[in-house]
Design goal:
The complex is a heterodimer of chains A (131) and B (46). Helix content of chain A is 40%, strand content 16%. In chain A, 31% of the residues are buried. Chain B is mainly β. In chain B, strands 1-2 form a two-stranded antiparallel sheet. Classes of the chains: A alpha+beta (131), B mainly beta (46). Strand 3 of chain A pairs antiparallel with strand 3 of chain B.
């Protein structure tokens, strides 16, 4: 998300990341890896459950596509730091409009399963143009 | 493992309270009220 910050912002979207852990972890993560992304914590994790974000079973987390995604991230220079929260929790990405309506929802099937943000931004721009 | 109720386009986004980096509670809706929001749930910080 940090790498795509400029194009996301140009498309009229604000960026927000919610993670598991304590506020100090969010502060460290945001300051070090995502200075342009606002970070919040949901320790319970009430919002993860409200948004329908599941835990993956251990076999799913170690599936070949999950391992390949990890290798791609490592190749791009991403490194796993000290983990906080729940390693079994899967990722999720949403676009919510100004009225609080979900316009896009993507549920990661494994640990590294994220939508292509360039494609997502282009899709959003198309939605705006058609509105 | 129970299946979660997943959201789909057109659904009302759930609101709730998170903590910001200073440990202060903030309502999620205060973010989308300022404009469309790209929201990512991370697996963890790290």
């Amino acid at each position: 998300m940090e790498l795509h910050h400029a194009e996301i912002e140009t498309a009229g979207l604000r960026t927000l990341a919610i993670g598991l852990g304590e506020p100090k972890h969010a502060r460290h993560f945001g300051g070090k890896l995502a200075p342009n992304v606002e970070c919040l914590t949901d320790e319970k994790p009430t919002l993860y459950e409200a948004f329908g974000i599941e835990k993956g079973n251990i076999l799913r987390l170690l599936a070949p596509d999950a391992m390949a995604a990890g290798a791609r991230a490592a190749k791009q220079g991403h490194r796993q730091g000290e983990a906080t929260g729940d390693m079994q929790r899967l990722p999720g990405t949403f676009i919510i409009d100004g009225q609080g309506i979900v316009r896009y929802a993507y549920y990661g099937k494994h640990a590294g399963d994220q939508p292509d943000l360039t494609e997502l931004v282009n899709w959003w721009l198309g939605q705006k143009a058609a509105a | 493992m129970a299946k979660a109720n997943k959201l789909a386009p057109g659904d009302v986004a759930p609101d709730g309270v998170c903590l910001n980096v200073d440990g202060l509670p903030v309502e999620l809706s205060t973010f989308w009220e300022k404009g469309p929001l790209l929201l990512t749930f991370l697996r963890h910080f790290g």
